[in-house]
Design a protein that fits this description.
Number of strands: 20
Strand content: 15-25%
Shape: elongated
Structural class: alpha+beta
Largest sheet: 8 strands, antiparallel
Distance between the termini: 31 Å
Helix content: 25-40%
Length: about 425
């Protein structure tokens, strides 16, 4: 996409959207429907880069579960995010995709995907519609903050561009700058200091949907890193005991664990580590067998067989599961059949820290929702709105993050419309 900005040192626009991810693009589309011109600025050579990466293995657009359950997927921010989803929910998002000529289907897990599974056709159709609606794109524009105008609006927005410095005078601005995961795609969290200079309350950015580090032995790292553990269950620690079990699978890595089941529990694991310095993830290696069944089979006479052979013969426990069991139990525990059986059903896996935020699927933290009003306008910066992952909320994998990010973009754009065109109802 060519850069559309001339070398001029200043220009004027009606609304500036800073950040060309899903939240920013949905804000631009919503403004266009309101008849308001929008200019989108992004530091990268093209928009939607993280969106495209997310769709590389099949774009998980949203989830098909009932809205009551969907709306509760956002932890302590569920009530606030539910108001965004009232504006643009999962069904509305599917209909929006259909309007772009992209059919969707529901997978076996309830997740919703484009029929072609890819993100690129959807993004191409979206950008074509946005350009046709008059949205203008300005690439390789790195945002450097803002200074207030002589009146509450316009704002003076400052950029570094390939042509030098640029100041944009805007009647309103929507910041959709993303979080701090996958910095190479444009979301590096560099905006935090600039907002804090304006006394905007920003919660520290932390990894979400991330892997965790454990102190593995050299043997486990060398022999089993990269191997998946399937048909298992995992639980958070609750005062030294397992909490609610969740089934799934995860993978051992050289540094610890990652995978869908880990991501599903990552917020609780991360918060426990932050509070205590480390935590345990409890693993049930055989969730399809009752504790009594496991005790009976482990206690069965094994004759001259090794314990590893005995566990494989009686329980089908072998390979990476046996290796993890040995890794996380003391040698003497293998001589206590009742204790070994308990460990098979509830194995404490000590986790020391999250993997770096840049490796995370998404991030938590950001502009606290309390720093914005119901339209997502900053209370201390009238005329400037925020949307997407840069706000202080988080979501599990499964299409929830993308849906709510786009919904927040629509909410912010409605807020801009109400501010610039008073007396008009919000669609």
């Amino acid at each position: 996409m060519p850069d559309s900005t001339s070398p001029a040192s200043s220009t004027a626009v009606r609304v500036a959207i800073i950040g060309g991810g899903p939240a920013g693009l949905m804000a631009a589309e919503t403004l266009a429907r309101h008849g308001i011109l929008a200019d989108v600025y992004d530091s990268m050579p093209s928009v939607g880069r993280k969106f495209l990466l997310a769709g590389r293995g099949g774009l998980n657009l949203t989830h098909s579960e009932p809205s009551e359950r969907f709306n509760q997927r956002f932890g302590s921010r569920s009530s606030a995010v539910a108001t965004w989803l009232h504006r643009l929910d999962a069904q509305a998002l599917r209909e929006w995709a259909h309007g772009l000529g992209v059919e969707t289907f529901v997978g076996t897990s309830g997740r919703v995907f484009p029929l072609e599974m890819k993100a690129a056709p959807l993004l191409r159709a979206w950008l074509s519609r946005l350009r046709a609606a008059g949205v203008r794109f300005h690439m390789r524009h790195h945002w450097n903050g803002w200074t207030e105008g002589e009146t509450p609006a316009p704002q003076r927005l400052h950029f570094t561009t390939p042509h030098g410095s640029l100041t944009v005078h805007a009647d309103a601005a929507i910041l959709a700058l993303g979080g701090a995961s996958w910095a190479r795609l444009g979301s590096d969290g560099s905006w935090v200091a600039g907002l804090q200079e304006h006394h905007i309350d920003v919660a520290p950015l932390r990894p979400a949907n991330c892997g965790f580090e454990a102190d593995w032995s050299a043997h486990l790292r060398e022999r089993y890193a990269g191997m998946p553990l399937k048909s298992i269950a995992m639980a958070l620690d609750r005062d030294g005991e397992p909490g609610t079990w969740r089934r799934g699978e995860f993978m051992l890595t050289e540094s610890g664990i990652e995978g869908s089941l880990v991501y599903a529990l990552s917020a609780g694991l991360r918060d426990a580590i932050d509070a205590q310095g480390s935590t345990f993830a409890w693993v049930d290696l055989l969730p399809d067998l009752s504790a009594d069944k496991v005790v009976a089979q482990v206690s069965h006479s094994r004759g001259a067989r090794s314990m590893a052979s005995h566990l494989q013969s009686r329980l089908g426990l072998k390979g990476v599961k046996t290796a993890l069991l040995r890794e996380c139990t003391a040698a003497q525990d293998w001589h206590d059949m009742a204790l070994l059986a308990r460990r098979i059903k509830a194995l404490p896996l000590r986790l020391l820290r999250t993997r770096p935020i840049d490796e995370a699927i998404s991030s938590a933290g950001g502009v606290r929702l309390e720093a914005t009003d119901d339209t997502l306008m900053l209370r201390h910066a009238p005329g400037i709105f925020c949307a997407g992952e840069m706000l202080d909320w988080e979501a599990p994998t499964g299409g929830y993050l993308l849906t709510a990010s786009m919904a927040s973009g629509a909410v912010a754009a409605d807020g801009v419309h109400a501010r610039l065109v008073p007396g008009n109802s919000i669609d």
